[in-house]
Specification:
This protein is mainly α and 161 residues long. The protein folds into 2 domains: 1-71, no CATH class; 75-161, no CATH class. It contains 11 helices and no strands. Helix 1 runs parallel beside helix 3 (34-42). The longest helix is centred in the N-terminal third of the chain and has 9 residues, at 5-13. The radius of gyration is 21 Å and the shape is elongated. It starts with a helix and ends with a helix.
């Protein structure tokens, strides 16, 4: 597993402790190489993060999946926020796409508050990518353009309105 002295020193230098290894092992991640342990630690994947993912109904993922999520900034808080916005069922790929495009739970909640309750996650991404913000929607409403579908708002925004 850890092999030679150089690997042990590298692990220690990167914060891989016997406790860290044991806690990962308790979660089913056993016989990890020194490189995998260092990669896991360096990317901020902790046993607490993995336990949190399990509690949010994302158990039994490969360790690499948790590393990828952390690389994309997917925190437990981000997932909880999406759940509070009504998306407890979102796949990890969908959450990663939302995060990569800057879509937050607050953005979704703000659009819900403006009447856009039935948008798909892809529609939230498209609206966000087109610069359709809650302020933009409210501004258009104030100008008399109320109850427009999201795709019309995107089109208007794209043409400089």
């Amino acid at each position: 597993m850890l092999g030679d002295v150089d690997r042990l020193i590298r692990c220690r230098d990167h914060g891989v402790t016997p406790d860290f290894i044991e806690r990962l092992s308790d979660l089913g991640f056993t016989r990890l190489t020194a490189d995998k342990l260092v990669r896991t630690r360096d990317h901020g994947v902790t046993p607490d993060y993995i336990r949190g993912m399990h509690s949010l109904s994302y158990p039994n993922q490969a360790l690499e999946a948790y590393i990828t999520l952390k690389d994309h900034g997917i925190s437990i808080g981000y997932i909880e926020g999406m759940g509070d916005a009504g998306y407890t069922w979102a796949s990890l790929d969908a959450l990663r796409r939302l995060k990569d495009h800057g879509v937050t739970a607050d953005y979704i909640q703000d659009l819900h508050d403006l009447g856009f309750k039935d948008l798909s996650l892809d529609e939230f991404v498209e609206a966000h990518n087109h610069g359709v913000t809650p302020d933009y929607i409210q501004g258009m409403n104030d100008l008399g353009f109320k109850d427009l579908p999201i795709h019309e708002l995107q089109r208007m925004k794209g043409h400089g309105f």
